[in-house]
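REQUEST ID: PR-0412
SUBMITTED BY: lab tech R.K.
PRIORITY: routine
TASK: structure prediction, single protein chain
INPUT:
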Amino acid sequence: MQLDINTVILILFGLSAFFLFLSLFTKNSAKRDIEELKDYSFEQSQELYRLRERISSLETFTGLPATQTFSFTSELRSLSELTKENIISLYSEGRTPEEISIFANIPIETVQILIDRYIEESTK
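STATUS: complete
OUTPUT:
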């Protein structure tokens, strides 16, 4: 049983049209994945803040000197773009810099610098 070339072409064309329509109607999971990554990053920042607070309280309790000091400029450079986006989105939602500082485990001065830069860029 042989299929002629026209039948094969029609079958292939039909399959290609089917897969084209299928790809148009499937949901794009990239946006969902990005949101999940942002949420995970934010949760990790909060957990890091809680751990640093716990370490700080333990150092105070035991009388040991603080183990780390941060300069604001070096910390500002080391912030990932995702963290910066989280800070700006929290600010856009109406959160205060103090709240953002606590949630993101970043010094308030660093948060304020990011917000000031965001405001300057948006007014240009």
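NOTES: The longest helix spans residues 29-62.
REVIEWED BY: pending
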